[in-house]
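Entry 14. Structure prediction run on the chain below.
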Amino acid sequence: MRRLLLAPLLLLVPACKGETAKDVTATVVGKTVEVAKGAGNGVMEGLKEGRKGAASADGSRTLSTAEEVFTQADVSVLEAKPGAGGDVEVVLAVTNKTAEPLHLLGLHEGGGAQLIDQDGFATPLKSHSPGQSTDSIKVPPSVKVKASIFFEGEAAKAARVRLWGREFPVPASAAVATP
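Output returned:
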């Protein structure tokens, strides 16, 4: 792939001299980066739309935007406590308000889930934490579930959790809970 992207540059630069070679190189590299970014964004959008459009094995509805999630589910923070690996485990209550299973996506995308401490500093969601869904929360029809998500930081300093752009307070007693 790298050779394919550099091929136009290798063909054009020998025919140029001085500033022209510099300008051609800058243009080719700029366009290559633009195409690569566009392709990467297209792949991410395609994956998201493919997951939403395809029927899942359990018939669940896939939701990934704040509007979709909060129209069909209620979310609250039950507690923030020290996790086993020195991180912060945030336990959420997620209620499915529909008669269909829900698959909530977007926890990792664009800061979809962040822990905000008492000083206002935000920490993104940790990837691949034991006990955590990798990038989603599944909720059966018409029920409430507990879902744990993990962040770096100190549980005693946890003040708020931001999910899909909306902030939820960490209950005062929950932030000092011990494992």
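Confidence is low (pLDDT under 50) at residues 174-179.
Filed with the rest of this week's runs.
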